[in-house]
Amino acid sequence: MDIHSFYALIGFLLAAYAVIGNDAVQTLGTFIASNIRVFKWYWLWLAATSVLVVTLTYGWVMYNGDISFGRLEKIPPLQVQWYHAAAPLILVLLTRVGIPVSTTFLVLSTFATTLVLEKMLIKSVIGYGLAAFIAYALWMVISRFMNEKYNMVKKENRAKWRVMQWLATGFLWYSWLSHDMANIAVFLPRELPLPMFIGVLCILSGWLAFIIWTQGGKIQNIVLEKSGTRFMRSATIIDFIYALILIYFKQMNSIPMSTTWVFVGLLTGRELAIATTYRATYKAGYVFPLIGKDFLKMMIGLAVSIALAMSIHYVLDPAAAQ
To answer: Among residues of the chain, what percentage have pLDDT more than 90?
Structure first.
């Protein structure tokens, strides 16, 4: 194994943990929060891993060994350097303190040209704004029929909502994997041989088991702080809307985007709609600091990502900026 292959291996292992530990909470956070008291953690892991294996196998077959689902089309393969592997290490550290960093920006920006990075940023900003707008409009209607600050589902309907939640989470998990797997696959050959593909599945499944066992870690607070996210009905609606938004952006073009920004935008619009509907009891003094804190953390993550990318493009490897 040469030094560049070693950097690629370290980068992959760190990126696999960081992506599952940071971004997977966007898709599985509400699922974990609303089911962990009902099911043992390993049943949740088994369900999530089953979708993971099916989704990546489908991508591997349909895209000729490329588990990124073609999302790396604008980012040609590079010889991995030490600073590429450093990006997911920084992401792991930020994840451990609960900052919702965009994995797409922090990892892919070290491989992408500045032109592609600019397109990624524009698409992510649009994603945040569109998700917030759609969520606000939808929950202005939903919150008039369902009080999501309380678990008001009738006992006889809970089994139906539980089934719908698991289906919605599976749909979202597939949608998210087909987007964000590029953040891991960038360290791998674009055409994975079968033994390497099986190894990737095993490693991702292992990290997923750890994340679910620890109930999402500190980054899970982004979900738990929001109104009613522990309730399966609320979780089902959030997951389904989020999945549809991701599918829309996936069909738009192959430019990667920050699903973290879309997720935070969705929760922001939802929280504002609930606050608007129940303004007599849900004070703005609570909701604005809450969403403002999330936005500030996103900006911190973006600043770190841009600083890292600029250091690589203009100091360590000027040719990468072209």
So the answer is: 20
| pLDDT (0 to 100) of residue 101 | 67
Burial environment of residue 217 by CB neighbours within 10 A (0 to 12, 13 to 18, 19 or more): middle
Give the per-residue pLDDT at 60: 95
Count CB-CB contacts under 10 A for residue 226.
Answer: 24
Q: Kindly tell me if the per-residue pLDDT of 226 is higher than 70.
A: no
**In this structure, what DSSP letter does residue 23 have?**
I
The DSSP secondary structure of 134-162, one letter per residue, reads HHHHHHHHHTTT--TTS----GGGHHHHH
The mean per-residue pLDDT over the stretch 65-71 comes to: 90
Asked if the model's pLDDT at residue 59 lies above 60, the reply is yes
| Tokens 């003094």 belong to residue | 285
Q: Looking at the predicted structure, is the pLDDT value of residue 117 above 50? A: yes
Task: Kindly report each contact of residues 146-152 with a partner whose C-beta sits within 8 Å and lies 24 or more positions away, as own/partner.
Answer: 146/233, 147/278, 148/227, 148/228, 148/231, 148/233, 148/234, 148/274, 149/227, 149/228, 149/274, 149/278, 149/282, 150/228, 150/231, 151/228, 151/230, 151/231, 151/233
Q: What is the DSSP letter of 165?
A: H
Query: How far is 6 from 75, CA to CA, in rounded Å?
Result: 21
Q: Do the Cβ atoms of 178 and 69 come closer than 8 Å?
A: yes
Over residues 279-293, the mean pLDDT reads: 68
CB atoms within 10 A of CB 212: 25
Beta strands in the chain (DSSP E): none
Structure-block tokens of residue 140 = 């202005």
pLDDT at 202: 94
In order, the DSSP letters of 32-87 are: HHHHTTTS-HHHHHHHHHHHHHHHHHHHHHHTTT-TTTTTTTTS------HHHHHH
DSSP assigned state of 255: -
Closest CA to 221 of 16, 31, 48, 33: 33
Which pLDDT belongs to residue 294? Answer: 73
